[in-house]
Specification:
With 478 residues, the chain is mainly alpha-helical. 72% of the residues lie in helices and 0% in strands. Helix 3 crosses helix 12, helix 7 runs antiparallel to helix 14 and helix 10 packs across helix 16.
Protein backbone atom coordinates (compact mmCIF):
# COMPACT_ATOMS: atom_id res chain seq x y z
CA UNK A 1 0.00 0.00 0.00
CA UNK A 2 1.39 3.39 -0.91
CA UNK A 3 2.08 6.08 1.63
CA UNK A 4 -0.54 8.33 0.05
CA UNK A 5 -3.22 5.75 0.76
CA UNK A 6 -2.32 5.56 4.38
CA UNK A 7 -3.92 7.69 7.04
CA UNK A 8 -1.69 9.02 9.76
CA UNK A 9 -2.71 8.31 13.30
CA UNK A 10 -3.32 11.45 15.32
CA UNK A 11 -0.29 12.60 17.26
CA UNK A 12 0.10 11.52 20.86
CA UNK A 13 -1.17 13.99 23.39
CA UNK A 14 1.34 15.82 25.49
CA UNK A 15 -0.71 14.89 28.52
CA UNK A 16 -0.12 11.33 29.69
CA UNK A 17 -3.09 9.21 28.60
CA UNK A 18 -2.84 6.71 31.41
CA UNK A 19 -5.51 5.27 33.64
CA UNK A 20 -5.00 5.89 37.33
CA UNK A 21 -5.41 3.51 40.20
CA UNK A 22 -3.57 1.78 43.00
CA UNK A 23 -4.98 -1.72 42.78
CA UNK A 24 -3.19 -4.25 44.92
CA UNK A 25 -3.13 -8.01 44.53
CA UNK A 26 -6.34 -8.49 46.52
CA UNK A 27 -8.35 -5.97 44.49
CA UNK A 28 -7.34 -7.49 41.16
CA UNK A 29 -8.06 -10.98 42.46
CA UNK A 30 -11.54 -9.84 43.53
CA UNK A 31 -12.24 -8.42 40.06
CA UNK A 32 -10.95 -11.47 38.20
CA UNK A 33 -12.51 -14.12 40.44
CA UNK A 34 -15.81 -12.24 40.41
CA UNK A 35 -15.71 -12.40 36.59
CA UNK A 36 -15.52 -16.19 36.92
CA UNK A 37 -18.74 -16.00 39.02
CA UNK A 38 -17.96 -18.86 41.45
CA UNK A 39 -21.52 -19.25 42.72
CA UNK A 40 -22.92 -18.99 39.21
CA UNK A 41 -20.54 -21.74 38.07
CA UNK A 42 -21.47 -24.12 40.90
CA UNK A 43 -25.14 -23.51 40.14
CA UNK A 44 -24.80 -23.62 36.33
CA UNK A 45 -21.88 -25.19 34.42
CA UNK A 46 -21.12 -27.69 37.20
CA UNK A 47 -24.54 -29.45 37.11
CA UNK A 48 -24.37 -29.39 33.30
CA UNK A 49 -20.86 -30.85 33.32
CA UNK A 50 -22.01 -33.59 35.69
CA UNK A 51 -25.20 -34.34 33.74
CA UNK A 52 -23.85 -34.29 30.20
CA UNK A 53 -20.15 -34.79 30.85
CA UNK A 54 -18.55 -37.46 33.00
CA UNK A 55 -20.79 -37.57 36.07
CA UNK A 56 -19.03 -38.18 39.37
CA UNK A 57 -15.64 -37.82 37.70
CA UNK A 58 -16.31 -34.17 36.79
CA UNK A 59 -14.34 -32.58 39.69
CA UNK A 60 -11.12 -34.10 38.33
CA UNK A 61 -11.66 -32.20 35.08
CA UNK A 62 -11.20 -28.97 37.05
CA UNK A 63 -7.85 -30.32 38.26
CA UNK A 64 -6.76 -30.92 34.65
CA UNK A 65 -7.90 -27.51 33.39
CA UNK A 66 -6.32 -25.73 36.37
CA UNK A 67 -3.01 -27.51 35.73
CA UNK A 68 -2.96 -26.52 32.04
CA UNK A 69 -3.84 -22.90 32.81
CA UNK A 70 -1.13 -22.74 35.49
CA UNK A 71 1.39 -23.92 32.89
CA UNK A 72 0.12 -21.15 30.61
CA UNK A 73 0.44 -18.68 33.49
CA UNK A 74 4.13 -19.51 33.98
CA UNK A 75 4.98 -18.06 30.58
CA UNK A 76 2.28 -15.39 30.72
CA UNK A 77 3.53 -13.90 33.99
CA UNK A 78 7.25 -14.23 33.30
CA UNK A 79 6.79 -12.40 30.00
CA UNK A 80 5.21 -9.45 31.84
CA UNK A 81 8.46 -7.39 32.03
CA UNK A 82 8.69 -7.47 28.22
CA UNK A 83 5.07 -6.33 27.68
CA UNK A 84 4.91 -2.73 28.83
CA UNK A 85 1.34 -1.88 27.86
CA UNK A 86 -2.01 -2.92 29.31
CA UNK A 87 -4.25 -5.02 27.14
CA UNK A 88 -3.62 -8.65 28.14
CA UNK A 89 -4.09 -10.78 25.00
CA UNK A 90 -3.69 -7.80 22.70
CA UNK A 91 -0.41 -6.65 24.21
CA UNK A 92 1.17 -10.11 24.33
CA UNK A 93 0.16 -11.10 20.80
CA UNK A 94 1.36 -7.77 19.45
CA UNK A 95 4.72 -8.17 21.17
CA UNK A 96 5.19 -11.70 19.87
CA UNK A 97 3.50 -11.75 16.46
CA UNK A 98 3.37 -8.09 15.43
CA UNK A 99 0.92 -5.22 15.46
CA UNK A 100 -1.46 -6.65 12.80
CA UNK A 101 -2.15 -9.93 14.64
CA UNK A 102 -2.08 -7.95 17.90
CA UNK A 103 -4.91 -5.70 16.82
CA UNK A 104 -6.77 -8.70 15.44
CA UNK A 105 -6.47 -10.29 18.88
CA UNK A 106 -7.73 -7.08 20.47
CA UNK A 107 -10.84 -7.01 18.29
CA UNK A 108 -11.44 -10.72 18.95
CA UNK A 109 -11.06 -10.20 22.71
CA UNK A 110 -13.41 -7.23 22.65
CA UNK A 111 -15.98 -9.30 20.76
CA UNK A 112 -15.64 -12.13 23.29
CA UNK A 113 -16.00 -10.00 26.41
CA UNK A 114 -18.84 -7.83 25.11
CA UNK A 115 -20.73 -10.92 23.97
CA UNK A 116 -20.37 -12.55 27.36
CA UNK A 117 -21.35 -9.39 29.24
CA UNK A 118 -24.51 -9.06 27.12
CA UNK A 119 -25.22 -12.77 27.46
CA UNK A 120 -25.14 -12.74 31.26
CA UNK A 121 -27.88 -10.10 31.24
CA UNK A 122 -29.98 -12.96 29.85
CA UNK A 123 -29.33 -14.84 33.09
CA UNK A 124 -29.65 -12.06 35.64
CA UNK A 125 -33.03 -10.86 34.35
CA UNK A 126 -34.85 -14.20 34.74
CA UNK A 127 -32.88 -14.92 37.92
CA UNK A 128 -34.00 -11.69 39.59
CA UNK A 129 -37.55 -12.22 38.38
CA UNK A 130 -37.70 -15.72 39.85
CA UNK A 131 -36.18 -14.54 43.12
CA UNK A 132 -38.63 -11.70 43.61
CA UNK A 133 -41.59 -13.83 42.54
CA UNK A 134 -40.71 -16.20 45.38
CA UNK A 135 -41.28 -13.26 47.73
CA UNK A 136 -44.69 -12.46 46.24
CA UNK A 137 -43.84 -9.86 43.60
CA UNK A 138 -45.59 -10.14 40.23
CA UNK A 139 -44.02 -11.73 37.16
CA UNK A 140 -42.60 -9.00 34.92
CA UNK A 141 -40.49 -9.10 31.72
CA UNK A 142 -36.93 -10.23 32.41
CA UNK A 143 -35.42 -7.30 30.55
CA UNK A 144 -36.74 -4.79 33.10
CA UNK A 145 -34.56 -6.34 35.80
CA UNK A 146 -31.71 -6.55 33.31
CA UNK A 147 -32.17 -2.83 32.65
CA UNK A 148 -31.82 -2.03 36.37
CA UNK A 149 -28.59 -4.02 36.54
CA UNK A 150 -27.40 -2.29 33.36
CA UNK A 151 -27.87 1.18 34.86
CA UNK A 152 -25.92 0.27 38.01
CA UNK A 153 -23.08 -1.37 36.05
CA UNK A 154 -22.81 1.64 33.73
CA UNK A 155 -22.65 4.01 36.68
CA UNK A 156 -19.95 2.00 38.49
CA UNK A 157 -17.92 1.64 35.30
CA UNK A 158 -17.74 5.42 34.96
CA UNK A 159 -15.82 5.92 38.19
CA UNK A 160 -12.36 4.85 39.34
CA UNK A 161 -11.75 1.10 39.30
CA UNK A 162 -11.27 1.12 43.09
CA UNK A 163 -15.04 1.58 43.56
CA UNK A 164 -15.85 -1.45 41.42
CA UNK A 165 -13.14 -3.37 43.27
CA UNK A 166 -14.77 -2.67 46.64
CA UNK A 167 -18.24 -3.63 45.38
CA UNK A 168 -16.92 -6.83 43.82
CA UNK A 169 -14.99 -7.65 46.99
CA UNK A 170 -18.13 -7.57 49.12
CA UNK A 171 -20.23 -9.56 46.65
CA UNK A 172 -17.49 -12.12 46.05
CA UNK A 173 -16.88 -12.76 49.75
CA UNK A 174 -20.60 -13.27 50.31
CA UNK A 175 -21.10 -15.74 47.45
CA UNK A 176 -17.97 -17.75 48.23
CA UNK A 177 -18.80 -17.81 51.95
CA UNK A 178 -22.22 -19.41 51.51
CA UNK A 179 -20.80 -22.17 49.29
CA UNK A 180 -17.93 -22.81 51.70
CA UNK A 181 -20.42 -23.07 54.59
CA UNK A 182 -22.34 -25.65 52.56
CA UNK A 183 -19.09 -27.47 51.78
CA UNK A 184 -18.10 -27.54 55.45
CA UNK A 185 -21.49 -28.83 56.64
CA UNK A 186 -21.49 -31.64 54.08
CA UNK A 187 -17.87 -32.60 54.76
CA UNK A 188 -18.16 -32.58 58.54
CA UNK A 189 -21.42 -34.53 58.42
CA UNK A 190 -19.66 -37.37 56.63
CA UNK A 191 -20.89 -36.60 53.14
CA UNK A 192 -24.32 -37.35 51.74
CA UNK A 193 -26.49 -40.47 51.72
CA UNK A 194 -23.64 -42.53 50.26
CA UNK A 195 -20.80 -40.86 52.12
CA UNK A 196 -17.99 -39.12 50.26
CA UNK A 197 -17.84 -39.42 46.49
CA UNK A 198 -14.83 -41.36 45.16
CA UNK A 199 -15.39 -40.38 41.52
CA UNK A 200 -12.72 -37.69 41.63
CA UNK A 201 -10.08 -40.43 42.08
CA UNK A 202 -11.67 -43.16 39.95
CA UNK A 203 -10.20 -43.52 36.42
CA UNK A 204 -13.38 -45.32 35.38
CA UNK A 205 -15.57 -42.38 36.43
CA UNK A 206 -13.17 -39.76 35.05
CA UNK A 207 -13.27 -41.20 31.50
CA UNK A 208 -16.95 -42.18 31.62
CA UNK A 209 -19.68 -40.45 29.65
CA UNK A 210 -18.40 -37.51 27.61
CA UNK A 211 -15.23 -36.12 29.28
CA UNK A 212 -14.67 -33.80 26.31
CA UNK A 213 -17.99 -32.13 26.96
CA UNK A 214 -17.05 -31.88 30.64
CA UNK A 215 -13.81 -30.11 29.68
CA UNK A 216 -15.81 -27.59 27.67
CA UNK A 217 -17.90 -26.58 30.69
CA UNK A 218 -14.81 -26.50 32.92
CA UNK A 219 -13.00 -24.16 30.52
CA UNK A 220 -15.98 -21.80 30.40
CA UNK A 221 -15.83 -21.62 34.20
CA UNK A 222 -12.38 -19.99 34.07
CA UNK A 223 -13.11 -17.27 31.52
CA UNK A 224 -11.69 -13.95 32.70
CA UNK A 225 -8.69 -15.15 34.74
CA UNK A 226 -6.23 -13.76 32.18
CA UNK A 227 -7.63 -10.25 32.59
CA UNK A 228 -5.20 -9.52 35.44
CA UNK A 229 -2.92 -7.96 32.81
CA UNK A 230 -5.72 -5.65 31.59
CA UNK A 231 -5.37 -3.65 34.83
CA UNK A 232 -1.62 -3.09 34.46
CA UNK A 233 -1.87 0.74 34.38
CA UNK A 234 -4.11 0.77 37.46
CA UNK A 235 -2.02 -1.62 39.55
CA UNK A 236 0.56 -0.85 42.20
CA UNK A 237 3.91 -2.23 41.04
CA UNK A 238 2.51 -4.23 38.08
CA UNK A 239 5.69 -6.29 37.73
CA UNK A 240 4.87 -7.99 41.03
CA UNK A 241 1.12 -7.44 41.33
CA UNK A 242 0.06 -8.97 37.98
CA UNK A 243 1.92 -12.30 38.36
CA UNK A 244 0.79 -12.75 41.97
CA UNK A 245 -2.82 -11.91 41.12
CA UNK A 246 -2.79 -14.34 38.18
CA UNK A 247 -1.48 -17.30 40.19
CA UNK A 248 -3.69 -16.59 43.20
CA UNK A 249 -6.79 -16.21 41.02
CA UNK A 250 -6.16 -19.45 39.16
CA UNK A 251 -5.41 -21.46 42.29
CA UNK A 252 -8.38 -20.07 44.22
CA UNK A 253 -10.77 -20.66 41.33
CA UNK A 254 -9.43 -24.15 40.63
CA UNK A 255 -9.50 -25.31 44.26
CA UNK A 256 -12.94 -23.79 44.88
CA UNK A 257 -14.48 -25.43 41.79
CA UNK A 258 -12.87 -28.80 42.46
CA UNK A 259 -13.90 -28.90 46.13
CA UNK A 260 -17.40 -27.53 45.68
CA UNK A 261 -18.29 -29.75 42.71
CA UNK A 262 -17.08 -32.80 44.66
CA UNK A 263 -19.19 -31.73 47.67
CA UNK A 264 -22.25 -31.21 45.45
CA UNK A 265 -21.87 -34.77 44.16
CA UNK A 266 -21.27 -36.18 47.65
CA UNK A 267 -24.25 -34.31 49.11
CA UNK A 268 -26.65 -35.82 46.57
CA UNK A 269 -25.17 -39.30 46.28
CA UNK A 270 -22.81 -40.57 43.62
CA UNK A 271 -25.23 -43.16 42.21
CA UNK A 272 -28.02 -40.65 41.58
CA UNK A 273 -26.15 -37.43 40.85
CA UNK A 274 -26.26 -37.71 37.06
CA UNK A 275 -30.03 -38.21 36.96
CA UNK A 276 -30.56 -35.53 39.60
CA UNK A 277 -28.36 -33.02 37.75
CA UNK A 278 -30.09 -33.86 34.45
CA UNK A 279 -33.59 -33.35 35.85
CA UNK A 280 -32.80 -30.35 38.08
CA UNK A 281 -29.73 -28.65 36.58
CA UNK A 282 -31.02 -25.16 37.32
CA UNK A 283 -32.13 -25.81 40.90
CA UNK A 284 -29.88 -28.53 42.30
CA UNK A 285 -27.61 -26.07 44.15
CA UNK A 286 -30.57 -24.32 45.80
CA UNK A 287 -32.28 -27.57 46.82
CA UNK A 288 -29.02 -29.02 48.13
CA UNK A 289 -28.36 -25.88 50.16
CA UNK A 290 -31.87 -25.94 51.59
CA UNK A 291 -31.43 -29.61 52.52
CA UNK A 292 -28.24 -28.97 54.49
CA UNK A 293 -28.60 -25.34 55.62
CA UNK A 294 -32.37 -25.08 55.93
CA UNK A 295 -34.90 -22.76 54.31
CA UNK A 296 -32.90 -19.67 55.25
CA UNK A 297 -29.85 -21.07 53.51
CA UNK A 298 -31.94 -21.76 50.41
CA UNK A 299 -33.14 -18.15 50.32
CA UNK A 300 -29.63 -16.81 50.84
CA UNK A 301 -28.27 -18.88 47.96
CA UNK A 302 -31.01 -17.56 45.67
CA UNK A 303 -30.15 -13.95 46.51
CA UNK A 304 -26.43 -14.48 46.16
CA UNK A 305 -26.88 -16.27 42.85
CA UNK A 306 -28.33 -13.05 41.42
CA UNK A 307 -25.63 -10.86 42.99
CA UNK A 308 -23.01 -13.27 41.64
CA UNK A 309 -24.30 -12.69 38.13
CA UNK A 310 -24.20 -8.94 38.75
CA UNK A 311 -20.58 -9.20 39.88
CA UNK A 312 -19.79 -11.20 36.77
CA UNK A 313 -21.33 -8.54 34.51
CA UNK A 314 -19.51 -5.72 36.29
CA UNK A 315 -16.18 -7.52 35.99
CA UNK A 316 -16.58 -8.18 32.27
CA UNK A 317 -17.73 -4.60 31.76
CA UNK A 318 -14.51 -3.33 33.35
CA UNK A 319 -12.43 -5.68 31.20
CA UNK A 320 -14.26 -4.81 27.98
CA UNK A 321 -14.10 -1.06 28.56
CA UNK A 322 -10.33 -1.29 29.04
CA UNK A 323 -9.95 -3.05 25.72
CA UNK A 324 -11.95 -0.22 24.12
CA UNK A 325 -9.76 2.32 25.91
CA UNK A 326 -6.51 0.66 24.81
CA UNK A 327 -7.61 0.34 21.19
CA UNK A 328 -8.70 3.99 21.13
CA UNK A 329 -5.52 5.17 22.81
CA UNK A 330 -3.56 3.43 20.06
CA UNK A 331 -5.72 4.98 17.34
CA UNK A 332 -7.62 1.87 16.26
CA UNK A 333 -10.89 3.37 17.54
CA UNK A 334 -11.93 6.99 17.91
CA UNK A 335 -9.28 8.72 20.01
CA UNK A 336 -11.79 10.31 22.37
CA UNK A 337 -12.54 6.84 23.77
CA UNK A 338 -8.90 6.60 24.82
CA UNK A 339 -9.02 9.67 27.05
CA UNK A 340 -9.08 8.92 30.80
CA UNK A 341 -11.47 10.86 33.01
CA UNK A 342 -9.69 13.93 34.40
CA UNK A 343 -10.93 13.37 37.95
CA UNK A 344 -11.50 9.63 38.29
CA UNK A 345 -8.66 8.41 36.09
CA UNK A 346 -11.09 5.87 34.65
CA UNK A 347 -11.88 4.95 31.02
CA UNK A 348 -15.19 6.76 31.42
CA UNK A 349 -16.00 7.32 27.73
CA UNK A 350 -14.82 3.84 26.83
CA UNK A 351 -17.09 2.49 29.55
CA UNK A 352 -20.07 4.37 28.13
CA UNK A 353 -19.28 3.08 24.64
CA UNK A 354 -19.08 -0.46 26.00
CA UNK A 355 -22.46 -0.05 27.66
CA UNK A 356 -23.94 1.27 24.42
CA UNK A 357 -22.85 -1.82 22.45
CA UNK A 358 -24.13 -4.18 25.14
CA UNK A 359 -27.44 -2.29 25.26
CA UNK A 360 -27.87 -2.73 21.52
CA UNK A 361 -27.20 -6.49 21.75
CA UNK A 362 -29.71 -6.96 24.57
CA UNK A 363 -32.28 -4.72 22.84
CA UNK A 364 -32.02 -6.81 19.67
CA UNK A 365 -32.66 -9.94 21.72
CA UNK A 366 -35.73 -8.33 23.30
CA UNK A 367 -37.12 -7.11 19.97
CA UNK A 368 -36.62 -10.54 18.39
CA UNK A 369 -38.27 -12.21 21.42
CA UNK A 370 -35.24 -14.44 22.00
CA UNK A 371 -35.30 -16.66 25.05
CA UNK A 372 -32.87 -14.95 27.46
CA UNK A 373 -31.25 -18.20 28.61
CA UNK A 374 -31.44 -20.80 25.84
CA UNK A 375 -30.81 -18.30 23.04
CA UNK A 376 -29.32 -14.97 24.18
CA UNK A 377 -26.96 -16.42 26.79
CA UNK A 378 -26.22 -19.67 24.96
CA UNK A 379 -25.40 -18.08 21.62
CA UNK A 380 -23.30 -15.28 23.06
CA UNK A 381 -21.62 -17.72 25.44
CA UNK A 382 -20.63 -19.78 22.41
CA UNK A 383 -19.01 -16.72 20.87
CA UNK A 384 -17.04 -16.07 24.04
CA UNK A 385 -15.90 -19.69 24.40
CA UNK A 386 -14.46 -19.79 20.88
CA UNK A 387 -12.81 -16.38 21.20
CA UNK A 388 -11.16 -16.98 24.55
CA UNK A 389 -9.69 -20.33 23.47
CA UNK A 390 -8.28 -18.88 20.24
CA UNK A 391 -6.79 -15.98 22.16
CA UNK A 392 -5.24 -18.23 24.81
CA UNK A 393 -3.54 -20.27 22.07
CA UNK A 394 -2.26 -17.16 20.27
CA UNK A 395 -1.03 -15.62 23.51
CA UNK A 396 0.72 -18.83 24.51
CA UNK A 397 2.51 -19.01 21.16
CA UNK A 398 3.42 -15.32 21.41
CA UNK A 399 4.97 -15.83 24.84
CA UNK A 400 7.30 -18.49 23.43
CA UNK A 401 8.34 -16.08 20.67
CA UNK A 402 8.89 -13.23 23.14
CA UNK A 403 11.34 -15.34 25.13
CA UNK A 404 13.22 -16.38 21.98
CA UNK A 405 13.69 -12.75 20.95
CA UNK A 406 14.69 -11.27 24.31
CA UNK A 407 17.59 -11.74 26.69
CA UNK A 408 15.65 -12.83 29.75
CA UNK A 409 18.07 -14.73 31.97
CA UNK A 410 15.34 -17.18 32.96
CA UNK A 411 15.49 -20.97 33.00
CA UNK A 412 14.03 -23.33 30.38
CA UNK A 413 11.13 -24.30 32.64
CA UNK A 414 9.76 -20.75 32.69
CA UNK A 415 10.49 -19.89 29.07
CA UNK A 416 10.04 -23.14 27.13
CA UNK A 417 8.90 -26.26 29.00
CA UNK A 418 5.93 -24.90 30.99
CA UNK A 419 4.67 -22.53 28.24
CA UNK A 420 5.14 -25.28 25.64
CA UNK A 421 3.18 -27.83 27.66
CA UNK A 422 0.52 -25.20 28.31
CA UNK A 423 0.24 -24.54 24.56
CA UNK A 424 -0.19 -28.25 23.83
CA UNK A 425 -2.94 -28.47 26.45
CA UNK A 426 -4.69 -25.37 25.14
CA UNK A 427 -4.59 -26.69 21.57
CA UNK A 428 -6.29 -29.84 22.82
CA UNK A 429 -8.94 -27.78 24.61
CA UNK A 430 -9.50 -25.72 21.45
CA UNK A 431 -10.20 -28.86 19.42
CA UNK A 432 -12.73 -29.91 22.08
CA UNK A 433 -14.44 -26.50 21.98
CA UNK A 434 -14.86 -26.68 18.19
CA UNK A 435 -16.08 -30.27 18.36
CA UNK A 436 -18.77 -29.28 20.87
CA UNK A 437 -19.62 -25.83 19.50
CA UNK A 438 -22.88 -26.92 17.82
CA UNK A 439 -24.14 -28.38 21.11
CA UNK A 440 -23.16 -25.20 22.94
CA UNK A 441 -25.30 -23.08 20.61
CA UNK A 442 -28.17 -25.60 20.56
CA UNK A 443 -27.53 -27.07 17.10
CA UNK A 444 -27.43 -30.79 16.33
CA UNK A 445 -24.50 -30.30 13.97
CA UNK A 446 -22.60 -27.42 12.42
CA UNK A 447 -25.22 -24.96 11.18
CA UNK A 448 -25.72 -21.22 10.67
CA UNK A 449 -24.96 -20.21 14.26
CA UNK A 450 -21.81 -22.33 14.55
CA UNK A 451 -20.46 -21.17 11.20
CA UNK A 452 -21.57 -17.62 11.99
CA UNK A 453 -19.47 -17.59 15.17
CA UNK A 454 -16.41 -18.78 13.27
CA UNK A 455 -17.03 -16.12 10.59
CA UNK A 456 -17.16 -13.39 13.26
CA UNK A 457 -13.68 -14.26 14.47
CA UNK A 458 -12.29 -14.56 10.97
CA UNK A 459 -13.50 -11.00 10.40
CA UNK A 460 -12.16 -9.80 13.77
CA UNK A 461 -8.69 -11.23 13.21
CA UNK A 462 -8.62 -9.99 9.59
CA UNK A 463 -9.64 -6.51 10.70
CA UNK A 464 -6.53 -6.10 12.86
CA UNK A 465 -3.91 -6.01 10.07
CA UNK A 466 -6.19 -3.88 7.88
CA UNK A 467 -6.74 -1.24 10.56
CA UNK A 468 -3.09 -1.26 11.62
CA UNK A 469 -1.91 -0.80 8.02
CA UNK A 470 -4.38 1.92 7.02
CA UNK A 471 -3.88 4.00 10.14
CA UNK A 472 -0.15 3.35 10.47
CA UNK A 473 -0.62 2.57 14.16
CA UNK A 474 2.68 2.38 16.02
CA UNK A 475 3.57 -0.52 18.29
CA UNK A 476 3.33 -0.03 22.04
CA UNK A 477 7.07 0.45 22.21
CA UNK A 478 6.91 3.27 19.69
Amino acid sequence: MSDTAQVEAPPQSATPRRLRGSLGVASIVFIVVAAASPLGVIGGPVPLGIAFGNGAGFPFIFVVVTAVLLLFAVGFTNATPFVKSAGAFFAYVEKGLGRGPGFGAAFAALLSYLALEAGVYGLIGPGANALLQSYGLPDIPWWLYAAVAFVVVTALGYFNIALSGRVLGVLLIAEVAIVLVLDAVVVFSGGGPEGYSSGILSPTDIVSGAPGFAILFAILSFVGFEATAVFRDEARDPQRTIPKATYISLILIGVFYTLSSWVLISANGESTIVQNATDNAGSILATTTEQYLGVVGGHIIQVLFVTSLFACILSFHNIGSRYVYTLADRGALHRSLGQPHARHGSPALASIATSAVVAVLVAIAVLLHLDPITQLYTWLGGISAVGIMLLLVLTSASVLIIFRRNDHGLGRWKTLVAPGLGLVGLLGFTVIVFQNLPVLVAEESYGPFSFGIIALFVIAFALGPIVAARRRIPTAAE
